[in-house]
Specification:
The complex is a heterodimer of chains A (244) and B (227).
Chain A (H helix, E strand, L loop, with lengths): L1 H7 L2 H32 L14 H28 L2 H33 L7 H22 L3 H15 L2 H11 L19 H33 L4 H7 L2
Chain B lengths: L4 H18 L1 H22 L3 H24 L4 H5 L2 H7 L4 H15 L1 H14 L7 H26 L6 H27 L5 H31 L1
Helix pairs in contact in B: 1-6, 2-3, 2-7, 3-7, 3-8, 3-9, 6-7, 6-8, 6-10, 7-8, 8-9, 8-10, 9-10
The chains are: A mainly alpha (244), B mainly alpha (227).
Organism (chain A): Parahaliea maris
GO molecular function (chain A): heme binding; heme transmembrane transporter activity
Membrane topology (chain A): Multi-pass membrane protein
Chain lengths: 244, 227
Amino acid sequence: MWSFFHKLGSPPWLYRIAGSILSWLLPLTLVALAAGAVWGLLYTAPDFRQGNSYRIIYIHVPAAVVALAGYYVMAIAGGISLIWKMKMADVAMKSCAPVGAALTFIALVTGSIWGKPTWGTWWVWDARITSMLILLFLYLGVIALYEAYDNKDAAGKACAVLSLVGTVNIPIIYKSVDWWYSLHQPASIKFTGESSIDPSMLYPLLLMIGSFYALFTCALLMNMRLEILRREARTGWVRKLVGA
Amino acid sequence: MAPGALAFCSRILRRQLVLALRRPVDIGNPLLFFAMVVALFPLGLGPAPAALAGFAPGILWIIALLANLLTADNLFRGDFEDGSLEQLLLSPQPLYLSVLAYTLAQWLVTGLLLALVSPLFAVMLGLSASAIPVLMFSLLLGSAVLSLVGGIGAALTVGLKRGGMLIALLILPFYMPVLIFGSAAVQAVAGGMDASAHLAILGAMLCFAIALAPLAIGAALRISIDA
């Protein structure tokens, strides 16, 4: 157990293990994404009211769910790097930000594309949508702060503090549809009680959410490998790896 | 002999206030900024009184927020540059309370003053008289939250040479909830409803910010000094 924990702090070990995880997780993710997309887009019944346009939820909902969860991953990684001074947690935090920002952006764009035929407008200043926009700003703020520091050690710590402060906003974003009357519908999938979505639509959606989590993990690991190489560029093992 | 923690904090508070009072122009600038931006809105939106009165809660709150944002950057900068911040971090005094004293001093010369002069601009924009006490009260509560949150941004960017734009990007997302409830409180009263729920949430935000923001500011200051 402890040796595993110590190994986590070793860049070459993490680089290698991330590579071996990716070697099976990445193909699996792509297959699951393709299967979920085909199942959701082609083999589910059209919605009674919305017709085919509802099918964008197979992208929109997973992206939004994982974008929120990704912020926690970033903040927890930041917390670990602050408390235990673990360099690799810092790498994970830094690598999380662009992935999370991209997912948030996808959620916003797909929501807006869906909103045009359904609500008749590209954008409304609704609690959920505005708070997702704030989430995007939070991610971008972390990226901007990291880039502003010349001393990357301090940059990591400052970003960790900022991302921890930002966690205050996440429950508000998550609960915004329940707390405010908003145009955005409340959550259809519930862990307790009956979901308000038909099982034939729910299963492909769950598959897509699962695949988006896996996609997030893949993107995170790839980003981390790149960041490790960048930071360790002067060390012997990286030179050997690239054959210099 | 080292003074007690509270005595130390009141010294910081006094020092910051004396420093601020010696440069009265710096105290006046946010107020002048407030007045000038208020003047921009009738020019941009058109001078129709009914429309302006409708937008007044939002306009006043946004300007207060921007004024706070512009002053946030200076909170620790002077002390960082002359090294006294380093001494503060090395001192055995509790950083939590010292940081709270810094933000309190900053709030007294910006947020409090903005809240006190806000009725004047509210009248200029045609906000109904019944909403003015709530406007002042919501600004009092809200600007204290803004000062504390702004302190986090200031502490994170104090070591950077070009902090100005960055601090806005960092803390504006955290200003937004305050803006929502602050202007909603004023709008509620202007619309003839009760604002106590909004004010209660602003008060809760303030309690939360007092409890947690100084911790984040302290951590961020240590990082900035180390950098």
